[in-house]
């Protein structure tokens, strides 16, 4: 092949390489935005639960309130460890991963607010990057429900179902709260949509008097 013939191919290779770098950069920026947003929301929830505990605690109950705070901080640490993909293998076992995630979310976010969590997770495996982005989306949906769906907290329930079928994984987060008054909005919505695009997933939502249900439909091989 002559040098002249090679130039167009070199240009195509460089263009594809630059496009790949741009996509990786956008993905990394998306993950960073999600991390910052998640940290802000979880610290807000932690602060609210701490104020509630110490306001209610009598002199003899302060030690118990401190113990509860310590357990929540440890649970937040577990949550962020699960959401980080550093050092993870190429494939992740779905059932233990998402059961641990729901457990950490329950202890750190839901239980202090008087909200229960039920989870039904099907066994299987996902690529690590796909698994962690799905986990970020699930975490966003659960914490969003904890913040907005239960103004009175009494009888609050969030259910998580993750199952496969027809070449896709379906992850549903449903609550029995007051029901969303409209589509998800703001930073959380933009992050969810961006994460969904990054794993070729789509979001389906419905709300009514019985609560809100959001389903993430993700191809089995994104």
Automatic annotation (TrEMBL):
E.C. number(s) listed in UniProt: 2.7.13.3
Limits of the Histidine kinase/HSP90-like ATPase domain: 129-222
MF terms (GO), sorted A to Z: ATP binding; protein histidine kinase activity
Catalytic reactions on record: ATP + protein L-histidine = ADP + protein N-phospho-L-histidine
Keyword Transferase: yes
UniProt keyword annotations, A-Z: ATP-binding, Kinase, Nucleotide-binding, Phosphoprotein, Transferase
Pfam family, one: HATPase_c_2
SUPFAM superfamilies with a match to the protein in the record: ATPase domain of HSP90 chaperone/DNA topoisomerase II/histidine kinase
SMART domains: HATPase_c
Coiled coil: none
Name the UniProt record assigns to this protein: histidine kinase
Record organism: Bradyrhizobium amphicarpaeae
Lineage start: Bacteria, Pseudomonadati, Pseudomonadota, Alphaproteobacteria, Hyphomicrobiales
């Amino acid at each position: 092949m002559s040098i002249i013939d090679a130039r167009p191919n070199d240009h195509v290779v460089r263009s594809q390489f630059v496009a790949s770098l741009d996509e990786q950069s956008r993905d990394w920026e998306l993950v960073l935005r999600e991390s910052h947003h998640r940290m802000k929301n979880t610290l807000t929830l932690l602060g609210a639960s701490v104020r509630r505990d110490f306001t209610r605690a009598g002199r003899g109950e302060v030690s118990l309130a401190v113990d509860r705070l310590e357990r929540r901080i440890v649970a937040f640490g577990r949550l962020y460890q699960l959401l980080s993909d550093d050092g993870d293998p190429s494939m992740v076992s779905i059932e233990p991963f998402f059961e641990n995630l729901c457990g950490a979310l329950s202890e750190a976010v839901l239980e202090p607010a008087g909200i229960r969590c039920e989870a039904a997770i099907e066994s299987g495996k996902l690529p690590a990057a796909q698994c962690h982005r799905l986990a970020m989306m699930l975490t966003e949906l659960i914490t969003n429900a904890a913040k907005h769906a239960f103004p009175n907290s009494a009888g609050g329930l969030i259910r998580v179902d993750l199952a496969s079928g027809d070449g896709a994984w379906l992850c549903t987060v449903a609550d029995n709260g007051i029901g969303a008054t409209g589509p998800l909005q703001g930073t959380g919505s933009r992050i969810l949509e961006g994460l969904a695009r990054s794993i070729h997933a789509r979001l389906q939502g419905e709300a009514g008097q019985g609560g809100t249900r959001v389903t993430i439909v993700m191809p089995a091989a994104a």
